[in-house]
Amino acid sequence: MGVVKLVVELKPHHPVYVPGQVLKGEVSMVVMNSVTCREIRVNVFGGGYVMWKRGSGKRTITYISREYFMNLGVKVWQSSGIYTYPFTFRFANPLPSSVEGMHGYVRYEVKAVVDRVRAFNTTTSLPFTVNSIVDLNSLISVSRKPIRKEADQTTCCLFCTSGPIHLTLEAARTGYVPGEEIVVYGQVANHSNSVIKYSELSLVQQLTYHCKKRSKVELQTLHREYRPEVRPGGRQDWSGVKILVPPVPPSYLPWCQIIDIKHYLVLSAKLGLCRNVMLSAEVLIGNVPLPNTLEEEGVVGGGGGGRQVGSVIIPRPDLCPAPLTWQVVMGVGGDEEIDPHRLQEPARVMPRYTYGCYSTYKSSSKSSSQAAPVRMMLKRNSGNKSYSPRYITYNTSNYSHGDVTFA
């Protein structure tokens, strides 16, 4: 029966990793009888992939782009038994953060391959999350800048022109980290002849996918608040509305050329059939906070120890959750060459953050040639594994120890 089970385990397993960190783990193999192997190898790699389509039928145009960030490998090199092979890798620095979108992603995984003689290769893989460190203190001129936006927009319904709708939007600063609350002040003044059915304040994440000279934009609403209708001549105040920043990748997705991320506060007035009125202001999301901002929200002190990253403490790894292993029973696949033109789109689902979205990481038990180990990760193949990026989040409401949690 040969190799019946192959398991990759990270020891210790951290919820997230940062560029430059050391990744350690073990590959365990269960063998029922003697197996002849060329080698047993472990690869750690990361890459980005975007794909979208325009048009329909014969006029359909597909846009695709790939980017590779890391590809490290080591040979860990039999009668029946259980074998364990340790491995160690040091991440490149810098690296972009993990991210999942509707039309693209940045993913990292460790993959073990048993290269067998005259038999199908046996493979298994384990994805993990990388968080690049974006220190708001290194962008202090932007992070500390207050948000003050206002606009007058005239509504137009069919052939009728009405008066303006005045929108204002304010916040104390531009830079925040996940777990912080954005305190927003705004106003909707209806000087038109139309009824504003409702107004909406939202935090929006914009992902822009790039392929050659083309781009595609995807909008994800992270948080949303509503207010009731505003009659003509009426006014509606948004006074001290708190929007909690959820666990999300940092703005701009540094060091990735094919995906760009921006975050916006958006105040909009909905007028039904007439044109909606909207005012937006960009916010900067990092993962190292400005000094004193967390103290102002009640996050101070803390035991547990840790290491310094920027101006805050990243908690000790031994305080993080227990290791998570993914175990795959093998026995299928073949030694076919991976076709780089046989392209698959990313899973059309959202990452699972603490506010309840989910993503699916598609993997495969099929073997690949040694010449193209990364291409397997940059495609959606048969098989199924749950993959949800996790991001550094600051606990400002239920603080116990350490400054940082992982959501």
From TrEMBL:
<dbReference type="InterPro" id="IPR011021">
    <property type="entry name" value="Arrestin-like_N"/>
</dbReference>
<dbReference type="InterPro" id="IPR011022">
    <property type="entry name" value="Arrestin_C-like"/>
</dbReference>
<protein>
    <recommendedName>
        <fullName>Arrestin C-terminal-like domain-containing protein</fullName>
    </recommendedName>
</protein>
<feature type="domain" description="Arrestin C-terminal-like">
    <location>
        <begin position="161"/>
        <end position="290"/>
    </location>
</feature>
<dbReference type="GO" id="GO:0015031">
    <property type="term" value="P:protein transport"/>
</dbReference>
<dbReference type="InterPro" id="IPR050357">
    <property type="entry name" value="Arrestin_domain-protein"/>
</dbReference>
<dbReference type="Pfam" id="PF02752">
    <property type="entry name" value="Arrestin_C"/>
</dbReference>
<comment type="similarity">
    <text>Belongs to the arrestin family.</text>
</comment>
<dbReference type="Pfam" id="PF00339">
    <property type="entry name" value="Arrestin_N"/>
</dbReference>
<dbReference type="GO" id="GO:0005737">
    <property type="term" value="C:cytoplasm"/>
</dbReference>
<dbReference type="InterPro" id="IPR014756">
    <property type="entry name" value="Ig_E-set"/>
</dbReference>
<dbReference type="InterPro" id="IPR014752">
    <property type="entry name" value="Arrestin-like_C"/>
</dbReference>
